[in-house]
Amino acid sequence: MMLSVHDLAVSRGGIAILERVGFVLDPGEALVLRGPNGIGKTTLLRSIAGLQPPVAGRAELPPEGAAYAGHADGLKATLSVAENLTFWARIYGQGDIAPALHAMDLEGLAERPAQNLSAGQKRRLGLARLLVTGRRLWLLDEPTVSLDTASVALFAAAIRAHLASGGAALMATHIDLGLEEARILDLTPFRATLPAPGQGGGFDEAFA
Amino acid sequence: MLALLLRDLRLATRAGGGFGLSLAFFLIVTVLVPFGVGPEGGTLSRIAPGILWVGALLACLLSLDRIFALDREDGSLDLLATAPIPLEGVVAVKALAHWLTTGLPLTLAAPVLGVLLHLPGPGFAWLTLSLAAGTPALSIIGTFGAALTVGLKRGGLLLSLLVLPLYIPTLIFGAEAARRGGEGLATFTPLLMQGGITLGALAILPFAAAAAIRVNLR
Predict the structure, then answer these.
(1) Interface contact flag, A76 B74, Cβ < 8 Å
(2) Which of A25, B120, B129, B211 can pair with B182 through a Cys bridge, CB separation 3.0 to 4.6 Å?
(3) Which residue range is the domain that position B64 belongs to?
(4) Whether the model pTM is above 0.90
(5) Which superkingdom, per the lineage (chain A) (predicted)?
(6) Rg of chain A (C-alpha set)
(7) Do A64 and B7 count as a contact with CB atoms less than 8 A apart?
């Protein structure tokens, strides 16, 4: 088992948005989170990644943790593509960045400063970072934003290779990646029932 | 850890990295003071240790808000918080990188600029020594302040207000050590106090700063 989530409740800005979320992710599996804007996909992913504490429940991750990729790619504009990627590879104790550059079709751009990349190229570099983390569990928040069709196919191939090597991926995305094997979890049924006004400290906290 | 240090040093020296900003500010302050105070040597040499220390402190303050704000903006801070290195280590490395790009150049430049202010002969060594002992405290306290304000847009003013009171003990003992050294008095006590402040800050503040970042990332 790669990731198991039990009765997780998360809040954003002091307001509970999801509750009683539970699922299990096994090695080789991909799970796509669906739901309308604001349902709490990002908050759920950040809670599982350990960036914010859940209100209730727990998430059990692999001992080494997960590789998280959020809306921002964490790129330094004045460093080149290779320098950005080498930095993250060394942070995660990995050596070679060549396979990651190849998988995301960035070889021709390796020496270019990140500030001269297009939005889609930046995203590809951000996703290449996942490949140099060496982590088995990927948590992806809207990974395909600003990618064109060809790049989405590259990314889907990278996910498939990751799953085939025993990894797992949990992602929030709206577009169809062409991953038939991916399970889909709609978060709408887990929407938190709003507490009645005046109950608890929720009201004041919301305006803090 | 080493990779993070090298990246920060590299970023500081690339275009727009802010390296040299503090040094230029320090130079401007020390050049302007004789114009404002007047060229009379006795007055200048009496205020030189204090002016150099205040100048170094303000120059240090100038670059603090870059420590975490840039990493927060481009998402690196989230990724570092989920990386296999402890956040306390990230804070310590960031403080070290700040000192190497700010505190160390200021320490090395101070004796040169001391000439402009008629710093008394024996004071040069003591000024350098007191800056070398005190600027690490400025960097680590500033890193703590930057961690507290990392979630705020344009948090620079709040950062300065938070950090300045914490800088005062370092300033008092640092300038006192440099002044006493210049007048040929014993400098042991102020230097000891200053070293104590620096070591205490180094021991405690990385943990406090990491806790502040965790709260601000929520």
Answers:
(1) yes
(2) B120
(3) 2-217
(4) no
(5) Bacteria
(6) 18
(7) no
